[in-house]
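Internal tracking record. Fields below are filled automatically when a chain is submitted to the structure queue. Please do not edit lines marked as system-generated. If the sequence contains nonstandard residues, flag them in the REMARKS field before resubmitting.
Queue: standard
Priority: normal
Entity type: single polypeptide chain
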Amino acid sequence: MSGADAEKQLDWDGRTRSYLVHLPPDYRPGTPLPLVLALHGGGGNANGNVRQTGFNAEADRSGFIVVHPDGTGERRPLLNALGRGHIHTWNAGSCCGYAVRENVDDVGFLRALLAQLQRDYSIDPKRIYASGLSNGGMMSYRLACELGESIAAIGVVSGAQTVYDARPTAPVSVIHIHGSADQNVTLAGGIGAKALDRTPKPPVQEALDFWVRHNGCGAAQITREGPVTRTLYGGGRDGTEVDYYLIEGGGHSWPGGERMLSILDEPSTALDASALIWKFFAAHPKP
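SYSTEM-GENERATED OUTPUT FOLLOWS
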């Protein structure tokens, strides 16, 4: 099965939840590999996330397991039968959509999923990571807040931290990528001009400041290359860092990834988000 995707299901909390598992070609049972949970954006799904991010190709190059879970959504029997009804969201606190309205316990689901994956595959418990776009990035922040004992680092693209009473119990490294022209999840917060979810979001910097404080990081080191400004806060507890990449003129998209619909922003080519996030993950295991 290595090098291919396996469609799996997990019955949890009265729901049948689905996910895709991708094993790199060099996977061997008994040899633990890192694991990346790749969380789709709001209104997306696991299959679309595979295409949009290209994380599977990066997993094959770099030797880690990547799992694409599905969020939850309303039942749409006709659209599902046509293959067009898989519109899912994550309950990342105050966002987004169906998952929040129904108070879906996505933290509980992903905790149970991690336990199942560790039973089924050889996974290094010190190298478990979560990443996502938009609502998936928001969910990654929530996992850092509530599953910090398991998650070594998170990668957020075009997201914000929408957990307002966060009390993380462990340091977690953070890499965050955002476009200055994002009109869905804007840098300044509030409700973006293109936002489908009309719940106000906090400013992006608020999440970065939160994790700098919690991790005990030092002063910012700022560098610029082309349209990308990098702000690195290093020296945190257990070797944690907060690494922020701001793409001048970038929109609401996965840089270096696939544009899924013509109405969506064109992905920036200023950097390859999947490769950059994995490089950061690989450098930040749990101690």
